[in-house]
Structure formats: structure tokens, C-alpha cells
Amino acid sequence: MAKKKSDSGKNRSDAEGGARPYVVLARKYRPQSFDDLIGQEAMVKTLRNAFASGRIAQAYMLTGVRGVGKTTTARIIARALNYETETVKAPTFDMPELGRHCAEIMESRHPDVIEMDAASNTGVDNIRELIESARYKPIIARTKVFIIDEVHMLSKGAFNALLKTLEEPPEHVKFIFATTEIRKVPVTVLSRTQRFDLRRVDVPELAAHFANIVAKEGAKAEDDALALIARAAEGSVRDGLSLLDQAIAMGEGDVRVGTVRSMLGLADRGRIFDLLEHAFRGDAKAALTSLDELHRDGAEPVQLLGDLAEAVHAAARVKAVGVEAGSEGLSAEERRRAASIAAKLSTPLLSRAWQMLLKGGEETAKAANPRAAAEMVLIRLAYTADLPAPDEVIRLLGGEGALARSGKPVPADNGGTRDAPLNQDSPAPPVAASAPLATYSTPPSDELPFVDDENPGLDLEYDATFDDAALDDAAAAPTARADPRSFDEVIALTGARRDMMLKVHLEDRVSLVKFDAAAGSIDLYLLPGAPPQIANELREKLNAWTQRKWVVVLSKAAGERPRGEVRREREAAELEALKTHPAVKAVLDQFPDAKIAEIRPLLGPGRDETGTG
């Protein structure tokens, strides 16, 4: 009978064991000691030294994104504070085996390690209960530990009630706080704690961690599939383990790239690079066809543009820092495709494509028809693939001598590559023939230079057909003197005083008959449209602005032409003269709709009036 009873008990135990619920990977492989933590070397080293020297803080603040191990780290610290075996009777960093209290602490059921969720216990009364409990010594452990998760959710009153106890807690009490919103925690609380910022786990380290777990689970996984999951986790171990759990179930123990892409809703990476190359070749038809195929297979337009932006970023990173350093976290195929694009395109073109995709993704997310918006982004990308970058325009217009004259380094050719479509067989955009800019001499100091906004050091000489004195006046515009010595300075003073209505009248509605700065006398003739009270208004304002007496009288005979009319005629003549310059003419021939909006005179060589040399 005893035998049967024993067998019956064994069978019942087996049945109970077989009925145990499944534990998800995020809980099953939760770190149990400091050695199990990944990606937090700085914090682990600090805590190791603190425990070794006995410099254990009274309170710790753990912050970081979700899933990096804040609560788990808090429990491990609580375990280390209360670690106790037959030979260890003091707080210790090294915990090779489970101690007397370890299992209960890690399972959050120890009476002396109190975990509180601040999201549901936000009030002052909850903190008062905690403070009251802190007065009493621990029941069975060495130290009473209070772990408050999402501490930023506490109310202002609750924080204030906690301050005194947090600053001077009993010897047997330690506080450990965890939060994802460190900026919402009052500085008075932060100053009383020792803060640790838990960093996101890097993709290679996270993928290696997943590989170890897959091996322990008896499953199989491709390295590229694990890298995909690690990238999708965005540095969160818990998020990554949840995705890995789902991938193992979906693939029936075999985690493959295709399965993961289907699970995550990502388009095939190779097809993304194909689509990007179509756009960079300027082949809008092929790009739209690829977009249709990807959309038909379930890819979302916004996600597609995000994937294209990631591919552009990968290529730009490879071009900037090299294949080895720039392809971290990429599969072998992605590394090859990114390196191929980086070798054919220059950094300005990649940067321009990145900005277009980034802006296009925002537009697509807000559009009523996301697919149509994504198609327009690809069309724009394909169209601009034929447009060279600014440095290429300068080379095409005037040769590399123009860049040399500008004082800027001439961009390298990168082995014959240029800012153009990926299709190297396509001809370069035609440019009107012009003499190399390097053949022009530096303009004399009394001539007006042509200014290139992209290359301000590039001065192009042209022949002016108007008076040199007019150029001098334009290059040295009248300043707003407190005591004007000319009528131009009077106009400038009204502008400096922001009296724009009076300034317009003085420029276009009056004719100067006589100006005597020494006597403070101005004779004006009113033109049609001038207000009759302008003489009195000008006199009163000049008296107030200059602190001297002025006399403004009206004459019956006209004098000089209005200043505004003279200025506009001079600007029109300058504009016409500028259009005859070979380089400017070449640009206007290539871009018929382009217009010269403004000519800004600059001081030429030898006319430095700043006193800086």
C-alpha cells in the first residue's frame, strides 16, 4: 500500500509539473545577479567598488527607457544588501549562489523588501504609510529596502513628505527609485540620491544575448534575424525578448529573416535597397513599380519611407567612417549594398536625400492618401537625382579653378564618382560654355563684386557701365549718424529710428533743393503725393533726435531728383550689367526661370573700415 501511495503521489506530482504555465522569456531569463546584467558596465563597476569599500548610498535613482532593467537592478541591489549564507553575513557584490533571502526578493515576496508602484500610489497618505513603516526594523533580513517604481508619478505633496526621511533615513533603511521620466522628478529628491542612467543596449550585444537564449531554448535562429529583432527592440532587452518569444512561436522553433520581417511588418531589406537605387538613378517608373509591389505585399507607405531613410543613413555612415565602423548592426548583405551606394554617391547628395525622405515621411503620415504621398516623395527623389550639388555646379560652370579661387578645398572626385544619378552611363546635365572663372582677375577695390551665397569668398569681376561714384555710394551706404551731415544721412536716420512712413516720403515724395548741415537748414520741394505737414514733422523729429535746432522750409522750385528714383535706376543698371557676366549668363541659360533677387555690395580688398585688418 505504501508503494502504491508513493507511486500515486509521484504521478500527481508529474501531472502538476506538466501543467505548469509557460513563463515568457522576459521573465524566465531575468538577470539574477550583477554578472547577468548586459550593457550597464559603468553602473556595475561603480556598485562593485561601492560594496567593496562599504560606501553604499542611502538611496539610488535608476533611470532609463523601458525594458533596460531598472526594476530588476533594484531587486538585485536589494538582494546584495541582504545577501546572507552560512559564511557571508554582510552586504556583498558577489553572489555566486542563492542566499537565505534571495529567492523571495527576486520574486518580489520578501516582507522586508517593499515594492510600491507610484503610478497607483501617488498620494501623501501612501508616503506617510511608507515613512511609518520605515521606523521599524526589518523582520528577518538585515536591511529594509523600499523600491518605488515610476517615482515621477508621485504628487508634489508626496515628494515633499518624503524629503526628510530620504535625507536622514534610519540606518536599517535603503531607498531605490526607478523612473523613465527623470526630468519630472524634483531636484530636491535627485540631490538626495545616487543616480544611475541605464543605457540602451547596443544591437550587437543584444543580438549575442538573444543567441545565447535561443541556444538554451533548443531553438535555431539566423544571425540576421536576431539582428533585426535587436534593432526593432531599440535598446530594450524586455521588448527584444518579447519579440524573440513571438518569433520562436511563429517559426516553430526556427527563427528566420523572412519570418521576422513578416512578423514586424518590415519590407525585405534587399528590395528597399533596390527601390532606393531606382530613385537615385532617376528611374521614377521602376521606383513606383517597386513601391506598388511592396505595398501589395503588405508594407505600409510610412514604414517604407522610414526604411529608405535608414538605408540612406547606412550609406552615409559608411561613407563618413568606413565600412567596418559604419556598418555596425547591419547584415552582410546590407553592408554590401550600403557600401555600394556610398561608393557611387557623394555626401551632399546623400544628405539631401535624407532630408527629403525625413520630410516626406512626415507628409505621408498626415496625408489623406499615404500611398499617393509616398509616390510623390519617390518622384521628387528621382527628379532631384539629376540635379548636381552646389560644388558640382561650380565645377561645371567654371572648372575647379573657381573653387580654388574661393579659398575652399576642392572636393575629391572619389575615384571618378560625382553628385549625379547612380547610373554612371547617363550623361551629365549640359552646361552653357563659359570661360573658366579662374581666368578672371581679382576685381579692383572700386568695383562691385558678384557675391555667391554658397561661396562668399568667390568674387567675380564684371564690366560696369555706370558711374564709379555711384558704386562707391552703393558700397558705402549712409550710416544713421546722430548729427546728419547730408540728406542721405537724414533718410538713414529716419530708417534707424524705424519711422518708415517718413523715410518713404523723403525718398520718393520730395525734391531736395538745398541742405546746409552747419546751419541746420533743409529746403524741400513737395512732389505729388507728399503730405503738406512733412516739413513740420521732419523738423520736430530732427530736433528731438539730434538735440539741436533745425529749420525745414518749403521751396516753390524743384531741385534734385528724388533719392528713391535715383537709387532704383542705379540698381536696374547694376542688374543689367551683372547679367552680362559670362558665369551669371551661363547660370541663367541653364535655369531660365531663375531671377536675380538682390545685389548686395561688399567692401572690396583694401577698403576694410572695420579696423580689424
Task: Describe what is shown at a glance.
The protein is an alpha/beta fold. The protein is 50% helix and 8% strand.
**Share of β-strand residues:** 5-15%
Question: Largest sheet, if any?
Answer: 5 strands, parallel
CATH topology heading of the largest domain: Rossmann fold
Q: Give the strand order of the largest sheet, numbering strands 1, 2, ... along the chain.
A: 2-3-4-1-5
Number of separate domains = 4
Distance between the termini: 111 Å
- The number of distinct β-strands equals 12
CATH domain class of the largest domain: Alpha Beta
Topology:
Elements: H1 2-18, H2 25-28, H3 41-53, E1 59-63, H4 70-81, H5 102-106, E2 113-117, H6 124-134, E3 144-149, H7 156-167, E4 173-179, H8 187-190, E5 194-197, H9 203-216, E6 220-221, H10 223-233, H11 237-250, E7 254-255, H12 257-264, H13 269-280, H14 284-296, H15 301-321, H16 323-326, H17 332-344, H18 347-366, H19 370-384, H20 390-398, H21 400-405, E8 450-451, E9 459-460, H22 468-475, H23 487-496, H24 500-508, E10 510-516, E11 521-526, H25 534-546, E12 551-554, H26 563-579, H27 582-590
Parallel strand pairs: 1-4, 1-5, 2-3, 3-4, 6-7, 11-12
Antiparallel strand pairs: 8-9, 10-11
What labels would you give this structure?
about 625 residues; alpha/beta; Rossmann fold; Helicase, Ruva Protein, domain 3; Zinc Finger, Delta Prime, domain 3; 4 domains; 5-stranded parallel β-sheet; 3-stranded mixed β-sheet; 27 helices; about 50% helix; flat; disordered N terminus; disordered C terminus
Task: Report on the architecture of this protein.
With 613 residues, the chain is an alpha/beta fold. It has four domains: 25-197, P-loop containing nucleotide triphosphate hydrolases (Rossmann fold, 3-Layer(aba) Sandwich), CATH 3.40.50; 203-264, Helicase, Ruva Protein, domain 3; 269-384, Up-down Bundle (Zinc Finger, Delta Prime, domain 3); 472-566, no CATH class. Helices cover 50% and strands 8% of the residues. The strands form four sheets. The protein has a five-stranded parallel β-sheet with strand order 2-3-4-1-5, covered by helices on one side. Helix 10 runs parallel beside helix 12. The longest helix is centred in the middle third of the chain and has 21 residues, at 301-321. The chain is flat.
